[in-house]
Design brief:
- This protein is α+β, with helices and mostly antiparallel strands.
- The chain has helices at 2-8, 23-30, 34-42, 60-75; strands at residues 20-22, 48-51, 56-59.
- It is globular.
C-alpha cells in the first residue's frame, strides 16, 4: 500500500477509506480544535474507526451524528 502511494505521488496518510474523515477534517466539521476531538475520543463521545496510531480516522456518519447532536444542544 505504501509503495502504491509513493508511485501515485500521494502520501499514505492522505489515503483514507471512503466514508471516513481525518482528525483535522473531523475538527473542521464539528467546528472545534484538534485537541477537542481528542477529548471527545477520551470521553467516549467519538470512536476511532481506523487509521494509524498517529493518523486517526473517524466514520463520517458518526461525526455527522455528533455534529447534529451538538447543534441541537446549542440551539436549545
Amino acid at each position: 500500500m505504501a509503495a502504491v502511494a509513493r508511485i501515485m505521488g500521494v502520501m499514505e496518510s492522505q489515503m483514507i477509506r471512503p466514508g471516513h474523515l481525518t482528525a483535522h477534517q473531523t475538527a473542521r466539521m464539528l467546528g472545534v480544535e484538534l485537541g477537542t476531538v481528542r477529548q471527545l475520543v477520551r470521553r467516549g463521545r467519538l470512536t476511532r474507526s481506523g487509521g494509524t496510531p498517529r493518523q486517526a480516522w473517524y466514520a463520517a456518519q458518526d461525526v455527522a451524528a455528533l455534529a447534529a447532536e451538538r447543534q441541537a444542544r446549542d440551539a436549545a
